[in-house]
Design a protein that fits this description.
Blueprint lengths: L1 E5 L3 H12 L3 E5 L11 E4 L2 E4 L5 E2 L4 H8 L6 E2 L7 E5 L2 E4 L21 H8 L15 H9 L1 H15 L9 H4 L1 H9 L3 H21 L4 E4 L4 H13 L3 E3 L13 E4 L3 H8 L4 H8 L3 E12 L10 E3 L8 E6 H4 L8 E8 L12 H15 L8 E12 L5 H15 L3 E3 L9 H16 L1
Parallel strand pairs: 1-2, 1-11, 2-10, 7-13, 11-17
Antiparallel strand pairs: 3-4, 5-9, 6-9, 7-8, 12-15, 12-16, 13-14, 14-15
Helix pairs in contact: 1-9, 1-15, 2-15, 4-5, 7-8, 10-11, 11-14
The structure holds flavin-adenine dinucleotide.
Length: about 450
Amino acid sequence: MRVCVIGGGLAGLTTAYDLMNAGIEVTVHEASGRWGGKMRSSPVGDRLVDAGPDNFLARVPEGIQLCTELGLADRLTVPVSPKPAYLYIDRRLGELPKGTVLGVPTDFEALEGIISPEGIERARQDLHLPPTPLSADTTVGDYCRARLGDEVTDTLIDPMVGGINASSIETLSMADGATQLYKAAMSNRSLVTGLRETRDEIGATLGSAAQNQPVFNGLEGGMATLIAALVDALHRGGATLRLAAPLEAVPDGFDRVAIATEAHAAARIARSASADAADLIAGIRHASVAQITIEVPAGQLEPLDASGILVPRHQGFVITACTFFSTKWAQFAADDRYLIRITSGRFGDDRAISMSDDELRTTLLSEFAQIYQDPGEPLSERIVRWPDAFPQYEPGHSQRVDAIEASLAHDAPHVHVVGNSYRGIGIPATIGMARNIAQTIAS
Ligand SMILES: Cc1cc2nc3c(=O)[nH]c(=O)nc-3n(C[C@H](O)[C@H](O)[C@H](O)COP(=O)(O)OP(=O)(O)OC[C@H]3O[C@@H](n4cnc5c(N)ncnc54)[C@H](O)[C@@H]3O)c2cc1C
């Protein structure tokens, strides 16, 4: 069997890796001049720093498993812990309350000082309110406002849940975009009680040792290390790897084709095989993000003993989050300088992505000065733009993906789509989907 994989990001390379290991002849076409898609590093000063993801969820197995198979187990890192995240609310910083799960409180007392007494009282009503209807069309915003009120939803849940995928909770599907909350909501009339129970269940399943495991893993050398290992294994296994080789239609001459590009490119490519699938893929909307990463001399800024700061949408800033890389990761800790990534842009807010570099830089640094401290003139800096890079899982998303797969199965059964636009946005889910598609093709 001969298989063509279009797209050399994490999804494409993982699919190709499993196909190759199943003894299948595989060719990978990547449009750009380098492998990895969103997983890449570039210099800030004299250090290489992740420009896209810098960690992945460790409490699901897919990321760690693949790293281990590729011989990277001893290169897995964990954030320096325990470092809290801060929230910027009403001109001051406060610690994210302990016990929150994706911003939903499981301990109401921990909200004191961050949420008003009225807001806490309203959130407590979740324990007693009658059930709130929950379907494939329910958004995180609708459900959480009904259960916990506006203040907790806007201040805690929106920056936590929305921040993961640059989404708006008003358009994010509860079932597909916040699965942990959805499961809890399905299991109990009260979201808080449901979360307390599911959290306890996860703890019981993992065992007490596992409960103390870190939530996230990084990699020495950043996420590019995983990409380099995949590419190396593919080279050694005899796969055909083509860089700067875009494909704009499903190629002939292969038994199977896996389209592993971002959704907008996948819609163009799939059109030659199935117009219905192409239309459905094209309907997935995206958010854009822009970031500046700065290196600041130690004397110019007080270190913040936190992994970062989240800025809720209703505070009106262009900045959505700041990550203190030098506090979060041991490999970036240095006595003489701090490394900070400032992120802006989310679904429904394109102010940042439409600014010029100069305007973006001035805006983000002056907002950072208001939110935290004036960073002065950075030693070095890097601007990275991610236009239309974050697929949005809106209500009905998984039904849309089912329909995409059904259209392909009907019109072009040798064609598959894979990537983080479909069955999970993060690294572990992307790996999981890629491995499933490879298995489907191989069998
Ligand atoms: C700024 C940022 C931060 C993130 N942070 C995290 C995080 O902390 N943790 C986490 O788990 N996830 C995070 N993610 C998500 C994570 O990056 C994705 O889950 C993952 O990288 C998706 O991989 P992919 O292969 O599906 O897509 P991509 O990486 O987009 O790969 C698609 C590839 O297809 C290629 N391509 C496009 N058109 C064509 C064509 N016509 N022909 C051939 N090739 C083509 C592209 O060049 C690209 O290389 C983040 C994403 C971003 C942007």
